[in-house]
Specification:
317 residues, alpha+beta, Beta-lactamase, binds glutamine, glutaminase activity, Glutaminase, hydrolase, EC 3.5.1.2, Beta-lactam/transpept-like
Length: 317
């Protein structure tokens, strides 16, 4: 039994809640579709569901398909921003990318021209490409450093890229390439655009399971200290800032609805994963591949609603 102080539920009660969420997940299996913009993702078996939580002290509890690896996709935008916030000054970052919700699809291009090549936030594609540029122009081996960062955060040296997914993204790069070249035209991308794209696609193609992802986000539930190895990843202020950005921008143009229903900072990816943070308590990862029209996991979002109701507290009241 885990002796965890992070929730008023006993570890046994919490495990019962996770098991219930797994039993209820198939109710959502009739809705939505798996991502199909690249063949490597379209092949994923849709009716799967996993959930894992990592308590602020590093203990993990999980249920369902929590050990099945999947493509983390846009969730990697958070890992990239962490690396940038560790290495660059706030001025260097926030003069080139904003901190406001976009109200547009994650891969939209319309706002980018109207706003002179400055993306609204780091969690839409344009913003993540910008953050990737900040990293590629400073790091000798950006892909390697990003992978090491994720391995360190999750305390798991086995995490790796799915090269097939990365290649597939490159073969279907048109929209992301359009975003990156438009930003270059505004002088807001400094390194080689093809290198930026390749690095960004590799980051999206990291293959992880719910347990590994929950662990890699645990520092955001623990005032910036990674409970898996005791290292200080972020200051308390940076932790608060990242959680605020996740709450307002983490689920693209469905961020408001997610805040309304779940009330936690979160980040989704088109691989069907959603990570959420209950500050000072736990990080959570849910995964189920069927997506709604915004590109967010349907069963994942339902399960997070069920989890916060079952836990009986959120930062919102
Ligand atoms: N929302 C997502 O997960 C999008 C990531 C995807 N690789 C893309 O760039 O379009």
């Amino acid at each position: 039994m885990i002796d965890s102080p992070s929730t008023p539920l006993s570890p046994g009660e919490l495990q019962g809640l996770l098991d219930t969420l797994v039993k209820e997940a198939p109710r959502c299996f009739g809705e939505g579709r798996v991502a199909s913009y690249i063949p490597a993702l379209a092949e994923v078996e849709p009716d799967q569901f996993g959930i894992a939580i990592c308590h602020a002290d590093g203990h993990v509890q999980y249920a369902g398909d929590a050990e099945t690896p999947f493509s983390i996709q846009s969730i990697s935008k958070v890992h990239a921003l962490v690396l940038a916030m560790q290495r660059l000054t706030p001025e260097e970052i926030w003069t080139r990318v904003g901190r406001e919700p976009s109200g547009q699809a994650f891969n939209s291009i319309v706002q980018l021209e109207v706003e002179n090549g400055i993306p609204r936030n780091p969690f839409i594609n344009a913003g993540a490409l910008m953050v990737t540029d900040m990293l590629t122009s400073r790091l000798v081996m950006p892909q390697h450093t990003l992978r090491e960062q994720v391995r360190r955060l999750a305390a798991d040296p086995t995490i790796d890229f799915d090269e097939r997914v990365a290649r597939s993204e490159m073969d279907h790069k048109a929209r992301n390439a359009a975003l990156a070249y438009l930003m270059q035209a505004y002088g807001n991308i400094q390194s080689d655009v093809e290198l930026v794209l390749d690095t960004y696609f590799h980051n999206c193609a990291l293959s992880m399971n719910c347990i590994q992802l929950a662990r890699s986000f645990a520092f955001l539930a623990n005032r910036g200290t990674n409970p898996n190895d005791g290292t200080q990843v972020f200051s308390e202020i940076q932790t608060r800032q990242m959680n605020a950005l996740l709450l307002t921008c983490g689920l693209y143009d469905a961020a408001g609805d997610f805040a309304w229903r779940v009330g936690l900072p979160g980040k989704s990816g088109v691989g069907g994963g959603i990570v959420a943070i209950l500050p000072r308590r736990m990080s959570i990862c849910v995964w189920s591949p069927r997506l709604d029209s915004y590109g967010n996991s349907i069963a994942g979002r339902h399960a997070l609603e069920g989890l916060v109701s079952g836990l009986r507290f959120t930062p919102m009241g």
